[in-house]
Hints:
It is a single chain. Helices cover about 35% and strands about 20% of the residues. The protein has 10 helices and 9 strands. β8 (about 255-260) and β9 (about 265-274) form a beta hairpin. α2 runs antiparallel to α4. The protein starts with a helix and ends with a strand.
Amino acid sequence: MKLHAALQALLDKGLARLDAQILLLNALGQSTNNRAWLMSHDTDELTIAQQQTLDGLTERRIKGEPVAYIVGNKEFFGLNLAVTKDVLVPRPDTECLVEWALELIPATQTRSLLDLGTGSGAIGLAMKHARPQTEVSLVDASQTALAVACSNAISLGLAVHGLQSNWFESVSKTERFDVIVSNPPYIADGDAHLAALAHEPLMALTSGADGLDAIRHIVREAPAHLARGGWLLLEHGYDQAAAVRELLTQQGFGQVTSRLDLNGIPRCSGGKLK
């Protein structure tokens, strides 16, 4: 089968074009970012082994497994990150958190940043790449997740600090950060959306009856780890912005506001320590 026919067959099975292109490239041993290659080789023939590999990848996708887990990587903020089932798949919506943090850290000044619940390291590594002078610490309660983040840092040539810790539990009480960022679990236990996220780690998704338990904890503990005038930035659910702003205000943060994601939804909220 020629490549253009194989791609069309995937589309006929209901796969999104981008997913189909990535799976086809992976089966062919090509970079999943090189979609232009498919256009210039669309009359090439799949070998039997390549077709069998593609069939296996396709079956996994049809059953709902995210493409990032199938191929083992995902692009985030221009970085190619390895991902495993021990971490959440980095999502474009989270880029608004990175963009906000970049505004707070001038390119010419040295600052410190803590990525709390780092997962694949997406936020912290994007910050280190864009602001090399920034001291970045990656923290996660999961040893396997932290290993993924640290491996990504090594692959990207980014020097960061890694620490296994249940939120702030093992973070030095004498260290103060200029910016703390976190994409914590924020889905309510038993939420209907969880069915579509069955392949991702549950501990990184859910947080109590209203989904705000982790955020409450972070907001409460963050002031003890922020430098004076430091910022706490949090990703949250599409309908949680008002509640998160209220938590920040009650804890004494100033300049509390929210930012919109790529879909125009309030996705991140933050405040400045007075």
